[in-house]
Design goal:
The chain has 310 residues and is an alpha+beta fold. The protein is 28% helix and 20% strand. The strands form two sheets. Strands 1, 4, 5, 6, 7, 8, 9, 10, 11 and 12 form a ten-stranded antiparallel β-sheet that branches. Strands 2-3 form a two-stranded antiparallel ribbon.
Length: 310
């Protein structure tokens, strides 16, 4: 997956510190212990990033100083998220996601390239921040989640590479709405049904490539796109966790991944509001849930003989 595909649209401004002096880089051992300290680190990071972009012609390579700036910010986020988070940390989590997305977009417009491993590392943290935001929102406003389904993850382990919302499309170059979330997967990895339902569509669907669409109770629909192989047929009734296909990159995709959508009454919803119940990311692996199934999927029964469902 390209760097451009990895990020979505974000606010046009980042909270940068005022004044003409350049903020000092975040020291390796200086990790934020509160939302206030995290916001200060984000402001300093954004100001340094702005300065470095001004020093490079558009299309030039990302300088080592900006790479180090990103790595320092990643360390700060890891330190912040490694401790138990409470309600008072919600603002810091939201601010961090906003700043990271904004700076990724600005760097994508400025530099001709960004180290792939760095882009992936940043997006792992953006995804984790998004999950933390969704979990905090459910805890703070349980009534808002009352009508949402509780879906299981369609792939495991979980690593989010693109979020729901507007973004610059990496192939067409147009600003368009991303109607689901992208989950990292390897070619041929088993994809599972997020909830019990009946298969409405199973086959080729234009830019989505091989796609499976499942109707659930309450007029909810889930869609699974870019599959390398479809294991179900229209009209089949699937249980939660049944295998429905294998991951691929069919259709309009720049790499192997699962594009997962949630719809109700013809309107797309952010899947993160319904995925994973009240679970939070593992401390040991920031974007991992469960274990990857060990056994292959079979067409009969749609369930791996061995393995753990997500």
């Amino acid at each position: 997956m390209s760097f451009e595909e990895a990020y979505g649209a974000s606010p046009s401004r980042s909270p940068a510190s005022a004044g003409g002096s350049t903020p000092r880089p975040l020291a390796r051992g200086a990790l934020p212990r509160s939302s206030a300290e995290l916001e200060a680190a984000l402001a300093a990071f954004a100001e340094r990033a702005r300065m470095y972009r001004q020093q490079v012609a558009r299309g030039g390579a990302m300088p080592d100083s900006q790479v180090e700036n990103w790595e320092g910010m990643n360390r700060a986020l890891d330190g912040f998220m490694s401790r138990p988070l409470g309600r008072s940390d919600a603002r810091g989590v939201e601010q961090a996601r906003s700043v990271l997305e904004a700076e990724l977009e600005q760097d994508g417009r400025t530099y001709g390239d960004m180290p792939g491993t760095l882009a992936e590392a940043v997006m792992l943290r953006v995804g984790r921040l998004a999950l933390l935001m969704a979990s905090m929102h459910r805890q703070e406003h349980p009534e808002a989640a009352g009508g949402l389904p509780r879906l299981s993850w369609p792939v495991a382990p979980v690593s989010i590479t693109s979020l729901f919302g507007y973004r610059w499309h990496p192939i067409t170059g147009r600003h368009r709405r991303h109607l689901g979330v992208d989950l990292a997967a390897h070619h041929g990895q088993v994809i599972y049904t997020a909830e019990k339902g009946v298969v409405l569509r199973a086959g080729w669907n234009g830019d989505h490539g091989n796609q499976v669409e499942v109707q659930h109770a309450g007029r909810w629909v889930t869609r699974y796109s870019h599959l390398s192989r479809v294991l179900v047929e229209p009209g089949e009734i699937l249980e939660r966790g049944d295998a429905l296909g294998l991951a691929g990159e069919t259709g309009l995709a720049t790499g192997v991944h699962l594009h997962f959508e949630l719809w109700r009454d013809g309107e797309p919803m952010d899947p993160l509001d319904a995925l994973g119940g009240e679970e939070t990311p593992s401390e040991g692996a920031p974007m991992a849930w469960g274990r990857e199934p060990a056994g292959p999927a079979t067409h009969q029964g749609r369930r791996p003989v061995v393995g753990q469902r997500p």
